[in-house]
Amino acid sequence: MLLPLSDYGRDGAPITFKAWACSNPTCGFNIRIDNGELSYGKTIGPSQK
């Protein structure tokens, strides 16, 4: 099952459903929207600033 995740933008505005991640840790599939671009894959790692 994919779970919706939200975040906050640079100006503090909420971004609803910025990413979706698989609820099963061994699955690792995720979908993410960054600056209007869609990315997806099978690895989830820590965010870097």
Care to count the β-strands? 4
Largest sheet: 4 strands, antiparallel
Q: What's the structural domain tally? A: 1
The computed structural class is mainly beta
Helix fraction by DSSP (H/I, runs of at least 4): under 10%
Spatial order of the strands forming the largest sheet: 1-2-3-4
How many H/I helices?
0
Explained architecture:
The protein has 49 residues and is mainly beta. The chain has one domain (2-41). Helices cover 0% and strands 53% of the residues. The protein contains no helices and 4 strands. A 4-stranded antiparallel sheet has the order 1-2-3-4, with no helix packed on it. A hairpin with a 7-residue loop joins strand 2 and strand 3 (30-34). The radius of gyration is 11 Å and the shape is elongated. It starts with a strand and ends in an 8-residue tail after the last strand. 0% of the residues are buried.
Secondary structure: elements and pairs:
Elements: E1 2-8, E2 14-22, E3 30-34, E4 37-41
Antiparallel strand pairs: 1-2, 2-3, 3-4
Outline of this structure?
By secondary structure, the chain is mainly beta.
Give the tags.
single chain, 49 residues, mainly beta, 4 strands
